[in-house]
Design brief:
Number of strands: 17
Radius of gyration: 19 Å
Shape: globular
Oligomer: single chain
Structural class: alpha+beta
Strand content: 25-35%
């Protein structure tokens, strides 16, 4: 893994400790806020683009307003297109396990939009006594390790992403409230977007795979062949060597490059309470290897819903 900036050039007091060989780092010696010194912000941004996901402990001072203020340092904030933001906030999504919002399959945030978020900031609001970890996978490392014939194929492929995905999937059990919310809120408007399977990252120049559960089908392939191909690429991203797992503690904040990772929450906490609060930063349509950009090809209400 290349490092965006040497630890010798970090602002005084700031320290970065890598967690795994391919992804994840812990950032120490900083109190996140909306008025960070530019050098400190640049160091945090470099760390995120280098390690893909960065964790900052002991940020007990961060509330909803502070979270949004910190997010604005990265760019404009965007809410979820169908799920209302938390009351009193511009763009915080309150993800509550009690409502069945468990995000327990691999995904990048909101890839069913053409300009999906560039960066995500997440903090726990209520934590279960056990379980409820989150995992991230490095889609840049996954692309780089593909055999050359697979990379050449991937560079040419495009795929349809949609919020109308298989909610049940491989879940061992389905939360009834979650399924209801998925049907009535999350997919109240249906989006279909075409993305390249491989995009050129606008900051790092790396090639990154756009995969995860919003990917419905690879264009030009039948359902069966598409599923097999998607499985191959997803498997590379979720190999243990390309992943990191974080056990949350109160005061933690995670910041990740949503264009270079996929993630999933671990649904192992039963009926215990788990609420996390998410802020996402506006992105731009991904650019394929050949220069073409992603585009939304369909947007509409589900049948039977009022306009």
């Amino acid at each position: 893994m290349s490092t965006a900036s040497s630890t010798d050039t970090l602002p005084p007091g700031l320290d970065i400790k890598p967690i795994n060989g391919n992804i994840g780092a812990e950032l120490r010696g900083v109190a996140l806020s909306g008025d960070l010194h530019p050098a400190t912000l640049k160091a945090i941004q470099d760390a995120v683009y280098t390690y893909k996901v960065v964790f900052v402990r002991d940020q007990h001072h961060i509330d909803d307003a502070q979270q949004e203020a910190f997010g604005r340092l990265w760019g404009g904030l965007v809410g979820h297109p169908t799920v209302p933001s938390l009351g009193g906030t511009e763009a915080i999504l309150d993800v509550d396990g009690a409502r069945g919002e468990r995000a327990s399959s691999w995904h990048a945030d909101i890839t069913f939009l053409d300009a999906y978020p560039s960066v995500t900031i997440l903090r726990p609001h209520v934590l279960p006594e056990r379980g409820g970890d989150t995992l991230w996978g490095n889609t840049v490392a996954a692309y780089a390790e593909l055999p050359e014939p697979l990379r050449e194929l991937a560079d040419k492929l495009w795929a349809v992403h949609s919020n109308l995905y298989d909610y049940v999937g491989d879940r061992g059990s389905v939360h009834k409230d979650g399924l209801k919310r998925y049907n009535e809120v999350f997919t109240s408007s249906v989006y279909e977007t075409e993305h390249p399977l491989v995009a050129v990252h606008p900051v790092t120049g790396d090639r990154t795979l756009i995969v995860g559960h919003f990917l419905r089908q690879i264009i030009g392939f039948g359902t069966s062949d598409s599923q097999r191909l998607v499985g191959i690429f997803n498997d590379h991203v979720t190999r243990p060597e390309n992943t990191v797992r974080w056990h949350w503690s109160p005061g933690d904040v995670a910041i990740w490059d949503n264009r270079a990772t996929i993630h999933r929450a671990v649904d192992d906490y039963g009926d215990l309470p788990r609420i996390v609060r998410r802020t996402t930063v506006a992105g731009e349509p991904p650019v394929a290897v050949d220069g073409r950009r992603s585009f939304t090809r369909a947007l509409g209400k589900k049948p039977g819903l009022a306009a």
